[in-house]
Amino acid sequence: MRVVIAGAGSVGRSIARELLGNGHQVLLIDKDADDVQASRVPEASWLLADACELAALEEARLEESDVCVAATGDDKANLVLSLLAKTEFGVPRTVARVNNPKNEWMFDESWGVDVAVSTPRLMTALIEEAVSIGDLVRIFEFQQGRASMVEITLPEGSPFAGRRVGDVDWPTDTVLVAIIREERPLAPTPDDAIEAGDELLFITTTEQEDRLQDLVSPGERHHATSEG
Fold it and tell me: End-to-end distance of the chain based on CA atoms, in angstroms?
């Protein structure tokens, strides 16, 4: 997979390293010469340019990318890049960083954004998750399909502690995508047992969040989402 990342600051470089480690091709774009230092991520390709300019995106061969990540510290730039990526270059998937939560309402399909990731929201969610075992925490929403990624840390009293994944009748449109146990991610199989203290990551719909909360952790519904 070829991924173009605009914004070579700490966030962009961190994403690039993860993707490169998973065997993907990465091009980093930034207009700040101080950030464009190939030695920081030597396995990536680099381009010193303004990612909001068509000429720069043409030079980056954006139309050949599978994913475009708008990871700059400027929300306006991230929106413009996402829109250009979709409308001018037909990029299949766009991921945009939201710096100011007040701007989050704009990061949707009308601006070419497939997935919006709010760093402040994610930090808030992680803080809430740390003090709210048993509560559902919404990590982020997918702008298309009205789906979201949510997390629930299984409390000691959950009826599912010790049960097999395959024996649980999850709500409609809900998928258990990962179990985090002792800080290690596990890809769940039907034969895996769920243990108290496990962090369960689901993809679900907004309509099913309350039902999922009640199913996994009855009586614990405080809905510690990161909204607002």
Answer: 34
**Sign of the dihedral through C-alpha 203, 165, 123, 211:** positive
- Global pTM value: 0.59
> What digits encode the pLDDT tens for the residues 199-212?
889 998 888 888 88
